[in-house]
Amino acid sequence: MSVFVKKSLLFVLIFSFLYSCKSTYINKNITRKIETSFYNDQFTGVLVFNPKTNDTVFKYNANKYFIPASNTKIFTLYTALQFLPNQIPAFKYTLENDKITIQGTGDPTFLHTFFNDSTALKMARNYKNVNIVFNNLEDDKFGPGWAWEDYDAYFSPERSSFPIYGNVLTINGKDSLQSIPKILKQSIKYTETSKRRNYNENIFFYNLKKQDTIEIPMVIDTLFIKKLWQDVLPGKISISNYIGKKMEHIAYSVPSDSLYKRMMEVSDNFLAEQILILASSTMSDTLNSNKVREYILNNQLKDLKQKPRWVDGSGLSRYNLFAPISFVQVLTKLYNEIPRDRLFNLFPIGGETGTLKKYYSGISKPYIYAKSGTIGNNYSLSGYLITNSGETLVFSFMNNHYLKPSVEVKKRMQSVFEWLRDNY
Q1: What is the gyration radius of the CA atoms in the chain, in angstroms?
Q2: Pick from 276, 239, 297: which is nearest to 139 by CA?
Q3: What is the DSSP string of 33-102?
Q4: How much is the pTM?
Q5: Which of 9, 26, 97, 102 has its CA 20 to 30 A from that of 377?
Q6: Contact 350, 360 (CB under 8 A)
Q7: In sequence order, which residues have a C-beta less than 8 Å from that of residue 149 and are 6 or more positions away?
Q8: pLDDT single digits (tens) 336-375
């Protein structure tokens, strides 16, 4: 055996020994943090992965299934990036003399209070007759497993093929009562009831004593949509049901990344649901979010080691079941496929933005870029961790079925993240 071969073999043995020691050191310290009495009465899973070396840094119940809550939006983001172009397809349309026929794609930005897109309105103003095609969405208005009592909650608007105003009524009573859309102001009643809307009727309730801004989901049906459209384009609107006729053109609205960023940053359930519907519009004029979920699981994500039960785009449903390993796999795909600056810009930043503004702050700079998921007695966080040594780690830390305050769970998680940041 040559001297060179002997030195090479010695180097490999030393490297393997050092790596084994480091791995043992990491596992010992993180396990010590997790296997305490604090976690005895809950279900916890963790996976930390180094995408540069393809090494598993730490794993604990990584193959088990958890209720993911809004971590589900990571899969929705991945799907959108696979299907949608750089500009959101606002609607499909056909022109005939002085008439425009418009068919929804699920774009949630039309007259939305954050995006305030008016692409459809600007185009429709140029025509004497405007026909809105309705009922090309096969999804139910609510997702499977959604809580029925959330019908009036801001986070649970109805899904639809052509949303308008984000499918919510926005009320502000700070100075004088203001509503968006204005036409629904006459449907607002002053009361101190805890409910904000009649169960299946567009009669809304507002407490003047609070004087805050609230959003209340609207009941979406054909007649109501016609009323809202006639308000902005009086004398022009007609409504027809979808009959399968293919539209000739596509109009585009906002930059796609602006929609994804908003969904991820504030964990907007409505945007997440509509993004999957939008993705389905690239497959067919008949909109169906279930078909796009099935397609991507059977194609781009067919290599997942633990295929999830994935029933909605937002994570509102407790029927969803995902394993930490699945989130890490998808996050790794995103990390390898999307430029780093663009990717990290889409995620909430620990200590700085969105749902992570009050948590996981760095010392001199951010070290966590991740999506949280919160639903009663469950909290998870999945994303990217930047260590002091400059390494980027992909992680998923999931907690289910605890009775203690979520803030205590977050503190324990932060201690693990900070240890990894400082010691890896």
Answers
A1: 25
A2: 276
A3: HHSSGGGTTSEEEEEEEETTTTEEEEEESTTS-B--GGGHHHHHHHHHHHH--SEEEEEEEEEETTEEEE
A4: 0.93
A5: 26
A6: yes
A7: none
A8: 999 999 999 999 999 999 999 999 999 999 999 999 999 9
